[in-house]
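Hypothesis: this fold can be encoded by more than one sequence.
Test: take the structure tokens below, design a sequence, compare later.
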């Protein structure tokens, strides 16, 4: 699949989660001379070895890296609203990633973002992701929008691109474990490979139960994706753009 290397704008900042799609998009832009740098959105609920990996990848390749931390930690949001399910993904995404995008816009007025979102990547994104989108005045580009999963893997292997350590264990980038589309059965998997994250989620569940602010029982536990029911709701364009690899 040929990459889209259109001439306008000259350079873009690529959202970089450490996953196969985001590193492929960043590398495509770099090969075209259009990569201004990479943006990492710290959701405050990620696997602990991801950020060191992202920093090393960018340093090894000479890619400028900027990190935007969610201003309100995941625990605070969950204790206020409960653990998110599919219907709450937009809310949690706005807190954990959307505000980082807005902070980027303030720091880089007039500049554009890029993402590794692909139209065929998820049933929730079919017909939703576009080559160019605009969110709150920010132009966002999807340079590998039409690539198949096979084409992405072929590109990654051909160019020997390093992936997030979580790909070997959780089979996803691990940049966001908010649990909106996760299932309860994924908890043992996290506990096996990232016990500190599992302990953190368990302690948060206990605090939510003690607070008694969240009334529906289903919002008191992590992993309320309810299997395929989560796919019935299409993501918004912004959700698709910033949450490209949050499902296995």
């Amino acid at each position: 699949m040929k990459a889209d290397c259109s001439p306008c704008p000259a350079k873009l900042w690529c959202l970089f989660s450490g996953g196969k799609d985001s590193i492929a998009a960043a590398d495509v832009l770099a090969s075209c001379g259009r990569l201004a740098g990479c943006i990492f959105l710290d959701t405050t609920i990620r696997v602990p070895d991801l950020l060191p990996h992202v920093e090393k990848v960018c340093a090894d390749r000479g890619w400028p890296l900027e990190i935007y931390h969610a201003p309100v930690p995941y625990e605070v949001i969950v204790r206020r609203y409960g653990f998110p399910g599919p219907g709450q993904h937009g809310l949690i995404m706005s807190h954990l990633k959307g505000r980082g995008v807005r902070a980027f816009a303030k720091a880089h007025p007039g500049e554009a973002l890029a993402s590794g979102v692909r139209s065929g990547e998820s049933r929730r994104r079919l017909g939703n992701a576009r080559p160019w989108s605009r969110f709150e005045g920010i132009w966002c580009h999807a340079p590998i929008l039409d690539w198949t999963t096979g084409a992405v893997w072929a590109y990654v292997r051909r160019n020997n691109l390093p992936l997030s350590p979580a790909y070997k264990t959780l089979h996803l980038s691990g940049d966001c474990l908010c649990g909106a589309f996760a299932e309860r059965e994924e908890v043992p998997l996290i506990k096996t490979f990232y016990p500190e994250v599992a302990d953190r989620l368990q302690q948060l569940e206990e605090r939510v139960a003690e607070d008694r602010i969240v009334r529906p029982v289903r919002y008191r536990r992590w992993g309320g994706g309810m299997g395929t029911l989560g796919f019935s709701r299409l993501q918004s364009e912004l959700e698709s753009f910033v949450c490209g690899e949050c499902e296995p």
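The beta strands are 12-15, 35-42, 65-69, 112-114, 132-135, 138-141. Residues 58 and 65 are 7 Å apart (CA to CA).
Hypothesis status: open.
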